[in-house]
Each structure stands twice: as structure tokens, then as C-alpha cells.
Amino acid sequence: MAVAVIALILSVLLAAFILMPRLGKSAHTSKVQSNTNNSKASKSYSKSEVALHNKRTDCWIIIKDKVYDVTSYVEEHPGGDAILVHAGDDSTEGFYGPQHATRVFDMIDDFYIGDIQK
Predict the structure, then answer these.
(1) pLDDT higher than threshold 90 for residue 113
(2) How many Cα neighbours within 13 Å face the side chain of 12?
(3) For residue 45, what pLDDT band results from cuts at 50, 70 and 90?
(4) Do residues 60 and 113 lie in contact, with contact meaning Cβ atoms separated by under 8 Å?
(5) Distance spanning both ends of the chain, measured CA to CA
(6) Would you tell me how many other CB atoms lie within 10 Å of the CB of residue 3?
(7) How confident is the model at residue 84 (pLDDT cuts 50, 70, 90)?
């Protein structure tokens, strides 16, 4: 019985530990995101230009018509080389797949470099 109570308490503390920094960070993230998007939004790329960046050492992806340079993240990607499947191309479908934790939605803005030309 005591073990179950301790396990329950530890579970609650762990959940609080995981959620609390996220709640505090989300307000800050949106502020940073708006500043980032405003300063870099003027750059636009054609799909053919993005297509040139299709290697492990030079990896750009497109997600919802925004361009991200994820070269520095390729080696850290938990899914291994899966990030390279759509290197230089549209990765929207893969990015929003069930394999990604919600934290990737906060992380991706750090790699934003511009928009796709319409």
C-alpha cells in the first residue's frame, strides 16, 4: 500500500515537473516566435532553390510553405535518417505525423529561415 502511494506521489510530481516548464515556456516561445518571423519573413525561396539543400550536411525542409534549415539538427534527430527522406522537399505530412511529440512544434521555429515563393 505504501509503495502504491509513493508511486502515485512520484507520478504526480513527475507530471508537474514536465508540464510546468512547458507552460512557462509557451508564453516566452510565442514572443520569440513573433520576433523571429518578423525579422526573417522577408526572405523567400523557390522550391527549386530549396531542392538544392538535400544532403545530411545541407538539409532544408518545407513545412506548410515555410522553409527551415535543419542541418544542425540532422544528427540529433531521434528518428535517425528519417529526417532526410524529404530533405530539400515538403516535409509537412511527416512533420505532423504521430511519431512526433508536441515539443517539436516549439523547436521548429528555431530553424525558420523564410517562406516559399507563391
Answers:
(1) yes
(2) 5
(3) very high
(4) yes
(5) 63
(6) 7
(7) very high
